[in-house]
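User: What would this chain look like folded?
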Amino acid sequence: MAHLTHERIAFASDGAIARITLHRPQHGNAFDLPMAEDFLEAAERVHDACTTGLRVAVLDAEGPMFCVGGDLQSFATAEDRSALMDQVTSTAHRAIELLTTAPVPVVTIVQGTAAGGGIGIVLTGDIVIAADTAKFKMAYTAAGLSPDFGSTWRLTRDLGLARALDLTLTNRVLTAAEAQSWGLISRAVAPDTLPQEAESVIEQLAAGPTRAFATSKHLLRTSAAHDFTTQLHQEAAAITTLVDEPAAHEGIDAFLTRRTPQFT
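Assistant: Here's the prediction, encoded as structure tokens.
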């Protein structure tokens, strides 16, 4: 079991499952530069572990808040606000890119409010499971700022321009039920069942066909860049490759013999 605990981010891995935990609850898990740097280090560990047997990555947080976004106090006291903002965003953005493109499923567990950059962190997950008491708020323009952490890209594509503009310009609070019905998160569950629901999904993914997951994730996440005909070619090439790999042999045989597949 590999462990790494910085002041702001905790990382643990048993080889198959890696977990990144936002570890600054006394500040609402707000991102300052040290936290962004710790987050990038953890994301790099996930990226490297994908070549040595990692099957699923988990992103969660400690405390009542998931993440309130950037640490505005650190920017308020900075000698050069623009320089600090550039460092924080470029560092965190690299981490988000690594996790979003990782060839393993990423599961985000949201136990509390996500605001500002916290929404971008939430949406790093391929599957987002939230407590039904969680709330989501963009909050940027209320501080005279524009969005970062990839939220403009994700919200426009996931929700459509009208809803993305509504959330961004009015800073209205989105409930977990609304976020689920809008397609922003995968599931909203009762807070007392959140750990069990999340672990069930994580265990299912960890026991699944990793290459099929990676290929499916890539096809879905890159589909917006292709026209329909190109996407059909991408799908054909992918499934043609997978069909003769060990996982498909096992999966097809298990289906035909009516047994549970055992993927390795």
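The longest helix spans residues 81-100. If you want, I can go into more detail on any region.
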